[in-house]
């Protein structure tokens, strides 16, 4: 919302969700047309080894451009401990269906986090100054926003794994599941982004939790829930990366020993990356434009256009023809803008409105939000 402009950001979220819905169904249709049951085999049959290699690189890199625990109080210790105690054991499962209950728990925790963000827009928003351009319709960084939104909706790299885990996998059943899931996802995304932006407007950070003050006990609980959701979600991403390694180097099958070794190596490398990165905003942008954009916009469209024998005027082909160049633009322009104009990052530092010289937020975890002013109340010159 900060990058695109609030009204345009809402419209873009709906557009990205629609494209996601369409492309997920398109992938399974492409698999049915080509007689393949994995994303890699679909691209390999459609574009040969070069396409297969490109997709493998994108799928392999995706989990490594993720910051699994953006916590700043002993964050290195927490990352290592949570990886060894939770992420690694969960990632050792060989059947993705066994992670179903874990994914449900992650969804419940996400709902709790959303409730916290919604509560704070009511109690905190009146005390945070609004930036001058807070309500403009559109801003020049909209393409960067599309990259972040693409990251939020990306799940194409494991859609064949999920499709294969269904009791009776059919394109019609998959389409119904995708429609419901995408609708729920966009509603959650709208609520998160709207509540976060209404609270902080132009001061919104790439990681929304960086905007809240450290003495906010309710938000601290939200941070904990967020860390748990990522711990529970990451094993699904590990499935995809491990499958890529298995297909490229082991002919699609891993023995128990190599299964453990490959999983440990993947998790260790990802953990080392997360230890070195503490800015979630640039991570989301680069992941969105370099991995999510081609996996959502470009590759599903290209595969379907080459495999489908429908006439050029068919609605699916028209939509695919639009998605492909749009995805290329988002990927190239978004990458350039992410490098030249990265999102703000506090590196774990408190925001200016949390300091006593401006005002102190006390008793913030209670039912009432109290504001105690100091002699240098609000530092109006900073806000203007």
TrEMBL record:
Chain's gene name: SLC38A11
Main location: membrane
Record function comment: Putative sodium-dependent amino acid/proton antiporter.
GO molecular function: L-amino acid transmembrane transporter activity
Domain Amino acid transporter transmembrane: 1-339
Cited Pfam families: Aa_trans
Protein name: Putative sodium-coupled neutral amino acid transporter 11
Domain of life: Eukaryota
């Amino acid at each position: 919302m900060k990058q695109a402009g609030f009204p345009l950001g809402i419209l873009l979220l709906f557009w990205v969700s629609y494209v996601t819905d369409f492309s997920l169904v398109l992938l399974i249709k492409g698999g049915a047309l080509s007689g393949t049951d994995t994303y890699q085999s679909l691209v390999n049959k459609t574009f040969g080894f070069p396409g297969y290699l490109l997709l493998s690189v994108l799928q392999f890199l995706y989990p490594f451009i993720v910051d699994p625990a953006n916590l700043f109080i002993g964050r290195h210790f927490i990352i290592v401990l949570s990886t060894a105690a939770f992420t690694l054991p969960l990632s050792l499962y060989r059947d993705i269906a066994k992670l179903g209950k874990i994914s449900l728990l992650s969804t419940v925790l996400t709902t709790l986090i959303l409730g916290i963000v919604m509560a704070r827009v009511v109690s905190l928003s009146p005390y945070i100054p609004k930036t001058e351009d807070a309500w403009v319709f559109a801003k020049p960084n909209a393409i960067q926003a599309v990259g972040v939104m693409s990251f939020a909706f990306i799940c194409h790299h494991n859609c064949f794994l999920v499709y294969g885990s269904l009791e009776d996998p059919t394109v019609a059943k998959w389409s119904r599941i995708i429609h419901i899931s995408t609708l729920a996802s966009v509603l959650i995304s709208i609520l998160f982004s709207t509540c976060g932006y209404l609270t902080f407007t132009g001061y919104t950070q790439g990681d929304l939790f960086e905007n809240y003050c450290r003495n906010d006990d309710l938000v601290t609980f939200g941070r904990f829930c967020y860390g748990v959701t990522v711990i529970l979600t990451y094993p699904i991403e590990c499935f995809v990366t491990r499958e890529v390694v298995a297909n490229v180097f082991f002919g699609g099958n891993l023995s128990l020993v190599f299964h453990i070794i490959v999983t440990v190596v993947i998790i260790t490398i990802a953990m080392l990356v997360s230890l070195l990165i503490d800015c979630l905003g640039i991570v989301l942008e680069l992941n969105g434009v370099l991995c999510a954009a081609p996996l959502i916009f470009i590759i599903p469209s290209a595969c379907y256009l080459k495999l489908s024998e429908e006439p050029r005027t068919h609605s699916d082909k028209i939509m695919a023809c639009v998605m492909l160049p749009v995805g290329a633009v988002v990927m190239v322009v978004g990458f350039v803008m992410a490098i030249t104009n990265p999102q703000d990052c506090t590196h774990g530092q408190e925001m200016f409105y949390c300091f006593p010289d401006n005002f102190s937020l006390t008793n913030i975890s209670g039912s009432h939000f109290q504001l105690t002013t100091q002699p240098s109340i609000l530092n109006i010159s900073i806000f203007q």
